[in-house]
Structures are given as structure tokens and as C-alpha cells.
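Work Package 3 (structural annotation) set out to generate three-dimensional models for the target panel prioritized at the project kickoff. During this period the team completed the workflow that converts sequence records into C-alpha cells, so that structures can be stored uniformly alongside our sequence database. As a representative example, we reproduce one entry of 78 residues exactly as it appears in the project archive.
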Amino acid sequence: MNAAAALRARMATSFVARRGFSTTRAQLGSPYHYAEGPRSNIPFNPHTRFFAVRYWSFMIAGFGAPFAIAVWQTNKTR
């Protein structure tokens, strides 16, 4: 039983070793491959003027909206 398991394991590793995996280099001229690097995968430009003000106002509004809605719903008259 042990010999059969060892033979099966040895055959499995030799099968995997024979497979040839290869990939092609990403071509930058293709519309399906984009530039790589820092800040290339975000949909906005952090180097613009007043970016920090717009960022923090968006974060405060997005995080504060559920709490503001909860307070408004709690305090409104029925």
C-alpha cells in the first residue's frame, strides 16, 4: 500500500514537471493591457490641485451620511 502511494506521488510530480507553462509579454500598444506602476490603477489623479480637500470631503460625506440619516430618521416626527 505504501509503495503504491509513493509510486503515485512520484508519477504526479513527473507529470507536473513535464508541463510547459508560458505566458506572453504584455504589449502596451494593445487596448487590453494598461501601464503598470504606482498610481496607475486608480480612477483619479492624486497630483491635481486641491486633491486632498476633495478626497477628505468625499470621505467625510460618505462615512457621515449613514449616521446623519440615522439621526434624521430617529428625530423626525411621525
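Helices lie at 2-18, 51-75.
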